[in-house]
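TEACHING EXERCISE
Course module: macromolecular assemblies
Task: Read the component lines below, then compare them to the predicted structure of the full complex.
Student: A.B.
Group: 4
Components provided:
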Amino acid sequence: MGSASHSQPNGVPAIPGAAIPRQGGDSSAVHGPAIRVEELFRHYRMGETVIRAVDGVSLAVRAGEFVALLGSSGSGKSSVLNLIAGLDRPTSGSVIVHERNLAQLSREELAQYRLHTVGMVFQSFNLIASMTVAENVELPMRFAEVERGRRASLAQEALTRVGLQARMNHRPSELSGGEQQRAALARALINRPQLLLADEPTGNLDSRTGTEIMNMVREFNQQLGMTVVMVTHERALAERYAARMIFLADGKVVSEETNAGTVAIPAGREQRQEQQ
Amino acid sequence: MKLPDLTELALRNLRESVLRNSLTTMGISVGVASLVAMLSLGIGLQQLASRHLMKSGLFDTVIVTSRRDLRNSNRDEERTAPEPAESRILDEATRQEIEHLPNVSEAYPDIRFITELRYEDKPHLTMVAALPESARSTDAFEALQGRFFSSETAPEVVIQKTFAEELLGRKPKSGPDETNVAELAKPLLGKELTMRYAQRESAKTPSSTDTNTKATDEQSVAGAAYSVVSRELNLKIVGVADLDPESMRGPARARVFLPLKLAEGLHVMQPTDLREISRAAGNEPLYSSISVKVKNPSQVQAVEDAVKKMGFNTFSILDASRSIQEFFRVLDVFLGIFGSLALAVSSIGIVNTLVMAILERRREIGIMKAIGASDGDVKKLFFAEAGAMGILGGIVGVALGWAIGQVINLGTNVYLKRQSFPPEHFWAVPWWLVGAAILFSFLVSLVSGLYPAGRAARLDPVQALRYE
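Instructor-supplied answer key:
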């Protein structure tokens, strides 16, 4: 277990799973934005009606940036997030993540992308009820065919990192909402992805627990230079944590604000990005 | 995902809905049990029939005759074989040669002659045959009253039921009124029969001092002579056989049996002695036919071919055994089909259970896909669940089928015992059937899992994640 743990200069332990090589390559090697969404459309047909969930969205997110997608219910923010996550395919347009156009990937390639490049957290935690917390955290590593012994130690490390070492063998139903979301965070980060996508991560939590979770997300963003895209309808939350806020309404981007007070990207990394 | 992980997850998922999955697995078990039960019955019956046929000595016996014995040759053999006059004779050397052929367990001369037997001063004419020691274990002597010969040279006889009836002056009956062999044996066992027979006694051949071999041969042929002496021998009746041990012999079948070595020592005049007068004059016995016991009925053809190559005629009822085997194969196929029907029905249960599982675990599938499971991973997981149910169901089913077989076997044997029949083992579950039934159950389950697994793999993760 100890081999994968490295202390950071600021005293915060490294994200568990750091020993697993990144599949998508290091973000420092990426040219241009980490995520580029161009003229993205996602229309659903419900009987005779066509629902324009995403209606011509274009945006870019730099590597290591913390971006919040804001909007009211039905604004299309979750649909955009699902398209960036590779869970859905656009009707037209493109989602380019680290120079790979997701629309052109096969189903198998998309699954690999979700496994290695993306970590997701949801409002309703989405832990598998029949598994213990440790097993939930181990699950992505099973898909990644990580060796059993290594898997157990990495899962334990990850859960220690989010303060759940004592709850490892509990089932999700035996945990509080905050604990469940922490477990979900540990699971999202276990394969050390480059993108952390969070869909209303504090939606089911009280404000104190929500703050705890968001602090963790910020830690990951700042320490690992992990790109974070968070969907929320709480402007205050976005203002507090995100470097940039993108507002959506009716499936379109309506405005964008930068949050000058937030330091989202470590200085050195930002400089490198700028140069590129 | 690796196989151990897949298996672990599949078993975990099966444990989650333990009642439903157990019921489905039980369904498979019943299907497998019915298949195993049907096939075990078929195999058991086949083995029972083979056992009896083997014991009867019909299917592992090749009768060898000389081509010189024109009565036994057929046209096909005449075409390919050497002229009868140039063919070999059946003597002790030949018998030993045949006995040393591969797959032959025994070759013994067939000594049989028609003679007169006197019982309580009344003459009875019948065919007498010699039996080797190995005949003791044949089916025909299973229900023997009294005992088999005490030694191979003992002056003892075993008589057939119809001859016993004749000795006692009873008329043979058939059907339900058939005379009980035990009743017949009671007054006869231990009694003596006097056998009158014609003994061949070789006369002294004129000796030759000529060194020319050919001349010696000619002389011996010209001077061949033997006398036929009438002899009497007292024989003790030690056994009465219920069944006819020689049913395949047709009109040549004997009703009185002597120990082989005793019969050989008697030098009873044989029909071949007249034909082969030059050789019969010697001391070496000459056989009209030799019975060859083959180790396994499947090797009968090979032995027959080898003996034919030596230049003799052969006869076996291999063809009859082939058609019996064919019948049992057809029976097995039919029993297998009926048994599989139950398994087919249970496979619908697997489909149902897995489709239900997809509905219940829709969200779980969505989560797995969101965190990186590929379509293949999801598909394999459902396959593994179907396969695990198949293997578990197969194992339980084989055990259940075996238990059903034991119960039926036991019940039938109780019935047989009440009807005064010996117990029979007509139920056989060979190891290959155990393996094949579990494998078949596994494959049927995998096929049943095809549709549900494909459906689970195709689930849209966004839709699945919305599902509550």
